[in-house]
């Protein structure tokens, strides 16, 4: 029998290392892990844009007894469940708790936008008897990811009469898909000498949409006309209508299990629809009246700096909470709202960069998250010197750590790569500006910002478990 030495025992007691969540997962939890993953994959297939996410969760909220808050609601009470919608691109859910709202709330904020291609205001043109759409990439992408893959088109068009048309093409198996061409390898000697960031210029991300000409010799751009004719017949829109449109181009691929053991999920848009889905499902799972009001806030525009009317920087959150306080008879002036914020606690739900063994040199291995080791907490984010990030206080990190341990949640900590390698931000700093204690926490991801990102089913589960417990009973 090999007994541990005193040094071994002391090392185990004093040192820290994260654990593989699969190895500590209880047998009775495993069915829920895989069931949750199926629900999550279904969500990823249904909601590939921020508008679709909002639509999806409005339906889920209604199923769970939520009602849209409007100015006709004069009074709220503990147990009431309401939601607020901001321009169809962000949404806030609130489950009113037993304690007065002025004593604070538990908040999970996350973003529902993902890197993609947006159509330009005048996108359609014809060249060499092909019809194409000009795009402007949104968020941080590697442009070479977007060539030679099947693409779908999602969005809305507002016509001149004010009516709105929804467009989704490329998701149904009977739909056509779209495509961005690349230069054939036989003619690529010059292209292959360029840096990866320059090999595919942004202005070359033009989406192939048609090649059949309209049968009229007097028309100059026959292929373009035929595309316009199809769009007009199906959606009743004209080329001018595209100026007042939000049209996004995204990968057409469905969410899939990855690996022989089916332990991983591959899909577009997991940054950050992973944390958004889990936060929403966490608040929907609360059947009892929580001690403190539980709030989930899902926002747009994080990938471009959280600017604009539907972003975390907008005043929508403050206005919504003020309306809740007024409906509860707790709002007299702005100081009441400020004190409410000061008494609150928050999670900025955002994915983490998982250590990729193929590219280890880009990471600080000691401070990196691992696929399969549970939910991640990050003390700070930011870029080179912590710019544009938020840093949780030692006291708040300690409180979160103790909460995770006491609830038997498998967790780990990490940062976004080496210090000068790059970096990134979240919505945490916008929550912190309100004097709300906040920490970044979410699912580790491989190939973040690619067209097919990878997560672990057990990490998804542990993140859901943390979010659910946090909303219910964090004090």
Automatic annotation (TrEMBL):
Cofactor: Zn(2+)
InterPro entries: Peptidase_M18, Peptidase_M18_dom2
GO molecular function: aminopeptidase activity; metallopeptidase activity; zinc ion binding
Statement: the UniProt record of this protein carries the keyword Hydrolase: yes
Top-level taxon of origin: Bacteria
BP GO annotations: proteolysis
Alphabetized UniProt keyword annotations: Aminopeptidase, Hydrolase, Metal-binding, Metalloprotease, Protease, Zinc
The UniProt record lists the keyword Protease: yes
One cellular-component annotation, GO: cytoplasm
EC number: 3.4.11.-
Main enzyme class: hydrolase
SUPFAM superfamilies on file: Aminopeptidase/glucanase lid domain, Zn-dependent exopeptidases
UniProt record similarity statement: Belongs to the peptidase M18 family.
PANTHER family according to UniProt: ASPARTYL AMINOPEPTIDASE, M18 FAMILY AMINOPEPTIDASE 1-RELATED
Protein name: M18 family aminopeptidase
Organism: Caldicellulosiruptor kronotskyensis (strain DSM 18902 / VKM B-2412 / 2002)
């Amino acid at each position: 029998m090999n007994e541990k030495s005193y040094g071994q025992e002391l090392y185990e007691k004093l040192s820290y290392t994260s654990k593989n969540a699969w190895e500590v997962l209880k047998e009775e939890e495993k069915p829920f892990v895989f069931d949750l993953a199926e629900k999550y994959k279904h969500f990823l297939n249904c909601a590939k844009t921020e508008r679709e996410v909002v639509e999806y969760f409005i339906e889920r909220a209604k199923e769970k007894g939520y009602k849209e808050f409007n100015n006709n609601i004069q009074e709220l009470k503990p147990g009431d469940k309401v939601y607020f919608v901001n321009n169809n691109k962000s949404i806030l859910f609130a489950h009113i708790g037993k304690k007065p709202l002025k004593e604070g709330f538990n908040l999970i904020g996350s973003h529902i936008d993902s890197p993609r291609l947006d159509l330009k205001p005048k996108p359609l043109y014809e060249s060499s008897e092909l019809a194409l759409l000009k795009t402007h990439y949104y968020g941080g992408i590697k442009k070479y990811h977007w060539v030679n893959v099947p693409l779908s088109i999602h969005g809305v068009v507002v016509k001149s009469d004010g009516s709105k048309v929804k467009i989704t093409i490329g998701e149904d198996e009977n739909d056509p898909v779209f495509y961005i061409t690349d230069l054939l390898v036989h003619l690529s000697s010059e292209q292959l000498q360029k840096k990866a960031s320059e090999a595919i210029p942004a202005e070359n991300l033009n989406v192939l949409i048609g090649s059949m000409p309209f049968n009229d010799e007097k028309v100059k751009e026959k292929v373009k006309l035929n595309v316009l004719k199809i769009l007009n017949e199906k959606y009743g829109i004209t080329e001018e209508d595209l100026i007042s449109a939000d049209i996004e181009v995204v990968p057409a691929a469905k969410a899939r299990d990855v690996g022989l053991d089916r332990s991983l999920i591959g899909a577009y848009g997991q940054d950050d629809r992973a944390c958004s889905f889990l936060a929403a499902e966490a608040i929907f799972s609360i059947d009892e009246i929580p001690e403190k009001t539980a709030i989930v806030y899902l926002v747009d525009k994080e990938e471009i700096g959280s600017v604009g009317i539907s972003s975390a920087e907008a005043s929508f959150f403050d206005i919504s909470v003020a309306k809740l306080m007024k409906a509860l008879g707790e709002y007299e002036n702005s100081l009441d709202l400020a004190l409410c914020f000061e008494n609150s606690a928050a999670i900025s739900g955002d994915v983490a960069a998982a250590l990729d063994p193929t590219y280890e040199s880009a990471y600080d291995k000691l401070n990196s998250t691992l696929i399969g080791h549970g939910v991640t907490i990050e003390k700070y984010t930011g870029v080179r010197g912590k710019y544009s990030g938020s840093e949780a206080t030692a006291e708040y990190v300690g409180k979160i750590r103790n909460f995770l341990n006491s609830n038997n949640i498998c967790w780990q900590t990490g940062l976004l790569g080496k210090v000068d390698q790059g970096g990134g931000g979240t919505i945490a700093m916008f929550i912190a500006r309100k004097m709300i204690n906040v920490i970044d926490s979410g699912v580790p991801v491989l190939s973040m910002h690619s067209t097919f990102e990878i997560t672990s089913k057990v990490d998804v589960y542990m993140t859901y478990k943390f979010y659910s417990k946090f909303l219910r009973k964090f004090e």
